Amino acid sequence: MEATEDQKGGKSPLHKAGIAGVLFVVCLAAAAGGMALSMGSAAFLSVFDASATGDADADPETSRSTAQGETSAAFEMLPVDEMIVNITALTLSGRITSRFLKIDAVILYDPEIAGADEISARYLYIRDSFQDYMRQLGESDLEGSAGLARLKSELLRRARAVSGSDAPREILIADMVIQ
């Protein structure tokens, strides 16, 4: 008599389906966690709160809550014209060379914060401070997600300093190319 696949140590189709189901649930939980992290917990919870109450038209951006429990209006966007700057890089032989960084960015700002009207008025100064910073960068400064996060936080810091307010809330990078 020949032994069946179960007797040989193989997995039954039911066992494989159970493992696949567990993996699906873990992936779903990881995706939800990633969404919560990227959206911010308040916006993430408001999406599920709106769907639970049947309010499908609720926009998490316009109905987000602040830490004090107040609601604020949606952020406004100020596109920053495409910038191309030289950055330094090392060749394989260790020689310093020049590369180009091309970047398209958007400044998200809260129009309800005092000084928000200065952002548009000081646009050229903000753009100039962005270029001053980026010209000092090396290719290694922009490597990986940590490099992108540092770039965005430094640009945000400069936008806030030049505008003289905390109205700039985030810098979004639409395109970034190093060549």
Describe the structure.
- By secondary structure, the chain is α+β, with helices and mostly antiparallel strands.
- The chain starts with 12 loop residues before the first helix and ends with a strand.
- Helix 1 (13-39) packs across helix 2 (41-53) and helix 4 runs antiparallel to helix 5.
- The protein has five helices and three strands, in the order ααββαααβ.
- State the fourth-level CATH superfamily of the domain at 76-178: Band 7 domain
Q: State the helical fraction.
A: 40-55%
DSSP summary, beta strand count: 3
* DSSP strand content: 15-25%
Structure characteristics:
single chain; 179 residues; alpha+beta; 5 helices
Helix-strand layout with pairing:
Elements lengths: L12 H27 L1 H13 L22 E15 L5 E14 L7 H5 L1 H12 L9 H20 L4 E11 L1
Antiparallel strand pairs: 1-2, 2-3
Helix pairs in contact: 1-2, 4-5
